[in-house]
């Protein structure tokens, strides 16, 4: 997939989700099923497609970057409160107003920016199942952010500006990865991919665990998880 098309897709999806939430009511049940499916599909394509690609490039330091990405996501979620995996929390401040904290937007920006960097590599951007998996993960994430903004005291203009800042994060990450890859070469792109994979492993496993809260069996969510896994296996090369 070409670099301009990737940038357009990553830019347009959050804005489209924002428009959907603004003019239509997102069914929480459908969003949870989408989350379960996207988490399972993302985990599966990461394991089946990208981890083999990553470790084929060699070097024991790759594992350290994966672990660093996992821990980075742990830290980011301390500030984002789980919007990356579909949580739509609204935070009440002492003044009684409900707004999106700046630190939450910063953490979401860092997440998307870091996630976008490895797509500067044609091998990563050319893996269609992985591209789809990341886009599917970003869809409920954007819906959750748009829902938080709609429920808050943020005005319409500021709400769209916030969504726009979030939307440009991944494209900026792709451009940064492209420029840095040209200067620093293969090593940078490998580290960027490993960092992103660590973050995605954390997010996808968290989504799957949350698909069965309190370890209660839910047939619809289990079916969504199973379908996501089987679809990823069907697309593996």
What does this structure look like?
- This protein is mainly alpha-helical.
- It has one domain.
- It has nine helices and two strands.
- The protein has a two-stranded antiparallel ribbon.
- It is globular, with a radius of gyration of 17 Å.
- The two termini are 17 Å apart.
- 44% of the residues are buried.
- About 3% of the residues have low confidence.
Features:
single chain, 237 residues, mainly alpha, two-stranded antiparallel sheet, 9 helices
What gap, in angstroms, lies between the N and C termini? Answer: 17 Å
The percentage helix is: over 70%
Query: How many helices does DSSP assign?
Result: 9
> What share of the residues does DSSP label as strand, in percent?
under 5%
Mean pLDDT: 83
Shape: globular
What's a concise summary of this model?
With 237 residues, this protein is an all-alpha fold.
Helix and strand topology:
Blueprint: H1 3-23, H2 28-56, H3 61-80, E1 91-92, E2 98-99, H4 102-116, H5 122-125, H6 128-151, H7 156-184, H8 186-210, H9 219-234
Antiparallel strand pairs: 1-2
